[in-house]
Amino acid sequence: MARRGRPRPPDGRRPGGALASRAPASRRQHRRRPDRPRSPVNAPTAQTDTALVPGDLVLDEQVDARAAWSAVVAAGDVLTIVDLAGNQAVDCLLYSAADTSVRYSASETIARQGGIVLTTGSVLRADTGAALMTVVGDEVGVHDTLGGACSKESNTLRYGQHTRAQHGCMENFLLEGSRHGLGAKDLASNINWFMNVPVDPDGALGIVDGLSAPGKRVALRADIDVLVLVSNCPQVNNPCNAFDPTPVRMIVTRPGEAA
């Protein structure tokens, strides 16, 4: 079992400044309606200098704290995830857009690359072994795919009955997945971008302070057309979000031949 993360400070403030860590569910229920309008940062232009891999801008949206997000990223396009305030865990599910039964597998990805840490060069594979996306740029160097996703049930078990009203990433995935015809049986292993989950010698997983900082980015190239589901983690009971969930930015670019 994963060991308990550092408890939330009594005053609720974010500890340690910009490089402090993160936490699991929100203090109050904050569901994202399926038809809730997105928050565009700006209208598409010729290109963007914020994306880790430059190219023609396809999409540029901000995901509110605790909210869910999804988009189909076309083969060859690059999704840059920007940790705007630093130390914000971004839980992520990947599916083939053509066949959602083909979905990301943590075990296949780890076995093929021979390591548990995701970073530049990691190929994110489906349970079939097919490549879904490849990490082509990373300013943090450590991302997790072992820690799973928080939920109302896991929060209650770990942190007590007072957290029962707090929704988690699993609830976000169910709400956002319903927009694409996905249900509970379609939820698979996930990736936790910007989350730091060290493994002890005895195999126990830790939830500790993150390594990211304001403006840090990770870039993923789609190897096929990929449906990306994101939960901007609402956790407030452990350090995975520095006890203070914050917005992130999603940018999709289409590199030119010279890129």
From TrEMBL:
Q: Which InterPro entries match?
A: DUF1989 (IPR018959), UAAP2 (IPR017791)
Coiled coil regions in record: none
Q: Where is the composition biased (Basic residues)?
A: 25-35
What positions does the domain DUF1989 occupy? 62-227
- Write out the ranges of the annotated region (Disordered): 1-49
Name the UniProt record assigns to this protein = DUF1989 domain-containing protein
Q: What species is given as this protein's source?
A: Mycolicibacterium hodleri
